[in-house]
Design goal:
It is built from one helix and no strands. It has a domain at 1-29. The chain is mainly α.
Length: 132
Amino acid sequence: MGSNKSFLLAMLVVLSLLSDHACLGARRLLDTPPLPALTLPPLPPLPSTMPTIPTTIPSIPTIIPKIPTTIPPLPPLPSLPTTIPNIPTSLPPLPSLPSLPTTIPTIPTSIPSVPNVQIPAIPFLTPPPSKP
């Protein structure tokens, strides 16, 4: 920031010193006679006769082939069949379902007896002996 202030101060000092010379230079420019007008060199004379434009335009060679004036006939369209194929009127028979048995097995009415079998005691599965 300080360098900007010193730069501005230096510019003001220079301008104040040069202001007298600038005023004198401007006054001197105003006192000088005007510059002489520049004269342009004369233009060459125009030709007296204009070139003639040919009245016939030469044909432009083209590479586009000639378009035929007649259209070739279209190929014949395929004919549609006049008869309709036969559609079956009856459906095929359905497959037969498997037959269920008609007899139901009999349910036993008595409970079979279980033989009295003594299962050996396993020591770690038996309850502890009761205390009297």
